[in-house]
Protein 1
Amino acid sequence: MTQGSKGDKFQGRVLIVAGSDSGGGAGIQADIKSVTALGGYAMTAITAVTVQNTLGVTNVHAVPPAIVREQIEVVIGDLGADVWKLGMLGSAEHAREVTNAWYDVGGGAPVVLDPVMIAKGGAALLAEDAIAVIRDEMAPIAAIITPNAPEAEALTGIEVRNLDGQKRAAEILVGKLGAFSALVKGGHVPGAIVRDVLYTREGVRVFESPRIETRATHGTGCTLASAIAAHLAHGASLADAVEQARAYLMEAIRRAPGFGQGHQPLGHNWTCKAP
C-alpha cells in the first residue's frame, strides 16, 4: 500500500470530505457519528450543504472548491490526519481540487473513497462529468474504494447484478483503474444474503450477512466507509477494518431509532453507554 507505511503511528484521526445532511442520517453527520462511536477523531471539509430529511433531498448548495481546499489545508496544517474519507464531492471541479489537495498536503495518508452519486431517495449528488475524474484521477489514490452496485456500474461500465458482476467490477477497479483495493457492496443486489466483495492485489474475499428488512437504510454507505476509515486510522489491516466496519453497520441498522417517515437513519451511537 503506497498510502502510509507499516511504521506509521496511527492516532485515530479521520479527515472527512463530504456533504452535509440536514436530517443527520447520512453525509458529514453520519461520518462524524461513526468515527466518534468507534473511538476516532473526526475532522471535516464540507463540500455542499444539502436540504434533506428522510423523505429526500430538496436542494443542494455547493461550497466553492477553493473553500473546500482551504478547509483541508488548515485541518492538515494543524491537526494532521491518519486517514482521509472522501464522500459526496458533487462536481468535477470539487473532485479534482480534493485530489490535488491530497497530493499537496496529504502526506500519503490512506484514502477511503466512497463515490457517492445518488441519494437514497433518488436525487443526483454527482455531476456526470465528475464520474470520469473519480474514475481516472481519484481511484488511483484510493487505499480502498467502496461503491455500491449502481456506482460500480457507472465507474466500470459493466453490469453489477449478481456476485459475479461484483467480482468483475472489483477487479476492474483495482486492476484497470488503479485503486489499491475495492469493496463492491451488495446491498442493491437482490437476495436474502448481502454479499460485499473485497478485492485486493492479493486476492478476493466475500463478506456475507443476512439481509435486514428495514426502512433504516439512510446513510449506510457513508457509515460503512467512515467505519472503515476509523479502523484504519487506529492501525487495523484492510481486511480487519472492513470486517469490523460491517459488524458496526449491521448493529447500527438493527438498533435504528425509527425516526422519520422515509428512509430512516441508523443507530450510530450503539457503541456508547447511555447516560
Note: The chain is about 35% helix and 20% strand.
Protein 2
Amino acid sequence: MKVIQISDMHLFANDDLDIYGVKSNITFKNVMIKILDEDIQDTDMIFLTGDTSQDETPESYQKVVNHLSNLNIPVYWIPGNHDNTKQLESIFQSAKNFNRTASLILKNWNLIFLNTKIEGAEDGYLSPTELKMLKDKIASSPSEKKIAIVMHHHPAPVGTPLIDSYILRNASNFWDIVTGTKVELVICGHVHGDYQFKYNNIMIESSPATCLQWLKGTKDLRIDNKIGYKIYHFELDGYRASSKIW
C-alpha cells in the first residue's frame, strides 16, 4: 500500500501572494508536477495533513481539489492550525475522492486520524472527545494489525525550537494512551521539515512542507528554501518511508 503525504501548502486565493517571500501557490504546483511525473502511477491514496490554506478562503481550498479530484485516488485529509475547518469541509466534500474519517483499515495496518486544531491557536490540542476516540479505536483495533496515527501537530519535540514552541499542547495525555499499545507510527505535518525519530518506542515521521522548510535547529525565523513531500509503503512486517525534497 503506497501513500503520498502532502502537507503545509499554505495556499492563497491569489497566486501572487507569498508567505515569508515564497509564493506557496507556485511551489505547490511544482510539487504536484513532480508527484504526477514520478510517483502517482502506483499510489493507492494521498494524505493531506493540514495547513492547506494560508488565507482560509474557499478559492485556496479549491486549488487543491482542482489538482487532486481527477486522479481517481482516495484523498484523506485533516485540518491544520491555519485552516478554516468549515471552509475546508465545504469545499472538500464536493470532491468525490476527498474523505474525512476517524480510521482506515488496511490489509496489515489500522490508521487513526486525529484533529489537533484548536481555534485561535498555533499549537495543537486533543479534545477530550478526540482522546476518548483514540483510546477506543486502539482498544477495538484488530489484534493482528499494526496501528499508525495521522495528525497535524507533532506530539514530541523535533529539536527545532522555533516550531517546538507550537507542539501538541497536551502531548502527555496522548502518550499516556498510546505508549505500550500496538501503535508503531505517528505521521504528522506542521513542522515544515523531514524528520524521522523514535519517541517512547514509537516512530514519528513528518513530511516536508510544499512551500518552505524551517532551518533545522533554529530558534529564530530562518528558512531552508526547499519544497517536498513524503512517501510511505505500508507492508506486512512494517513500513518504509522516503522523502522527495529539493
Note: The chain has a mean pLDDT of 97.
Protein 3
Amino acid sequence: MKKLLPAVLMIFTFAYGTEPVRYDAMLYGGYIDYSSSDLKDYGYYTGLYGYMGIGNQHSFEGNIGYIYIKYLDGSDLNQFDYTGLYTNYSIPNTKIKVGVHYIDSDDKATDNGIVLFGGGEIYEPYKKNAGIDFAYSHYGDYNINKTYTYMRSRLTSTTTSTGLSVFQLSPKFGFYLGDYYNYGSFYLETRGYYIRLSDDVAFGKNFFSVEQNVSYFYKNFVLSLSGWIGEQTFAVKKDGFVVYNLSEKYKSGFSASIKYILSKKSSITAGLSQDRFKEVGSAKTTRATYLYFTFGVTF
C-alpha cells in the first residue's frame, strides 16, 4: 500500500504532464470533552490532509490522522487513521469517487480495520446536485459473543465468532440559493444514512438517520451548520475521512463552524460539534463535545 500510492501518483503525473496541477494542504487539531461519560475522561486529535488536482478531470486526496482518548480507569487509546480518495470528473457534470481508509488502533476489536468507500454524483455547478455514497467496513478481529438457549433441555451455551462487516448507503440531495455578491448565497444538503451490521454487537443490526447541512457564503466568510437525528453505529462520514470505529450507538449530533479566507492561498476554520451516544458498559446517554481548528494553504 505504501509503495503503490506514490507509483500511482507518478503515473498520473506523467500521463497528464501538460495539465495544470494544484496542491492543497491542511493542518488540523481538536479537543474532545467527555465530562458526561462514565468511561472516558478526555481526548484530542490532530492530522494532516493533502489534495492534488490534475486539470479538471482528476483529483487525489489523502489524510493521516491521530486520536488519543484517556479513560477514567487510567487506560488510554492511541489510534492512527490513513485515508486515500480518488475522484474522476471526466463525464460532464458527473463525479465518481473511490477510496480506502485503514485503522491502526489500540482498540483490539477494530485494529487493522479496512473501509472501502465510494459514490457517484450528478450536479449543475452552483445550482444543485444529487448522488449516493456507499461504504463497506470490515473488522476482522472483532469478537462477537452469541448466546443460544435449547428449550427442550433448557441448556444455555455461548459461542464466539470473529469478524464484523458493516454496510452503509447514504443518498444525498443539495441545492444553492441566494446572491453571493449582494447578500451571500446558501447551500443546503439533505443526506440519509442506512447502516447494516453483519451481527448484533449490542445495539441491533439496522440503523437509520437523516442529516441536514446548511452553508452560507459571503465575501471571505463561510458559515456552516449541521444537525442529524436517528441512530448510527460504525458510521463512515466526510467522504470516508471520518470513521466511527468504537462500539457506540449514536443518537443525534450537531456542528457549527466558521471559515475565514485569509487570501487566495490560505484560510482558517474554527468549529464546535457535539454527539449524543451510548457506550457499551454504560446505561446512560453520553455527550462528546469537540472543539477544533484548521489551517489550509494552496501551493
Note: The first strand starts at residue 21 and ends at 33.
Protein 4
Amino acid sequence: MNPPSETPPAEGRRPHLLLRITLVMAATLLVWEVMAWTGSLLPEGPQAGLRHWMNALTVFVLAVPMVWLARRHLDRRPWSGLLLTGPRRGWAPFLVGAASWLVPGLLGLAVALAPGWVGIVANRPPAETAATMAALVVLVLLFEAVPEELVFRGYLQRNLHTVMPGWLAVLSQAVLFTVFGLALWIPDAGWGVVPERLPLFLGMGVVLGCIRLITRDVWACVGFHLAFQTAAQSLLNGHLFTVEGDRGLLMAAVFLGPFVFGVLVTALLTRGEGSWGGRVPDPA
C-alpha cells in the first residue's frame, strides 16, 4: 500500500502558472471587449453620462467575479492570498495610496498655479462641477481602479511573486499591464499611439507594482489609481475645466511628479520596505 501523499490533491490539479496567467489575461481582454460592445449600443453622452455608467458597471460586474473564479478554480487558493484586505481594514492602505499621488500632485499644481504659469477655469457651475466630480470618483472606482488593480497588482503580481523575486514580479506585471493597455488603444487609435501610451502604461505599472510590494495591500494601489484617474479625467478632457497657459507644464508638474515621488511617499508613510529580492509563499 502506497503511503499517503504530502501534496494536497488540489495542488496536483493546479494548472501551470503560465497557463493561469494566459487565461486571466485573455479573460481580462474579453471583459473589456464586451464593455466596448455594450457601450456601443448607447449614444455618446457627456462625461459621467449613461454610456460611461454602462461601461463602468459592465467592467466591474464581469472583472471582479472573473478574478474570484480564477483564484478559486485556477489557483486553488483563498481570496485573502491576493493581499486584498476587507473594506474595514482597507481604508488605511487606500488612504496611503491616494496620498502618494495627491501630495506630490497637489504640490506640483501649487507650483504651476502660484506664478500664474497655468490657469484652471471651471466650465460649469460649482454645484454641477462638484456633483460630476463625485460621480467620477465612483465611476473610476468601478471602471478602472478596482478591476485593473485586482487583475494586475492583485492576481498577476501575487502569482508572479511566488516564482520570482519581488522586483522582477513588479516589472513582469508592468509589461503585462502595458500589453493590455496597448491592445485596447491600438485597434482604434492605430500604431501611432504607441510612443505616447507605452511609457505611460509601463511607468504606471511599475509605480503601482512598487506600491503594492511596499504596502502588501492592493487597496493602496486602488487609492493611487483613483486619485490619478479622477484628476486626469477632470483636468485634461475639457469637460469640467479649461487649462489656460502652458499645458505641458501642467502635465509635468501635476502628473509627472506623483510617478517620480509617489513610491517614496508610500515608503515614508508606511515605513515599509517590501520583499524585493525573495519569493513569497502562497499557501493553500
Note: Residues 78-270 form one domain.
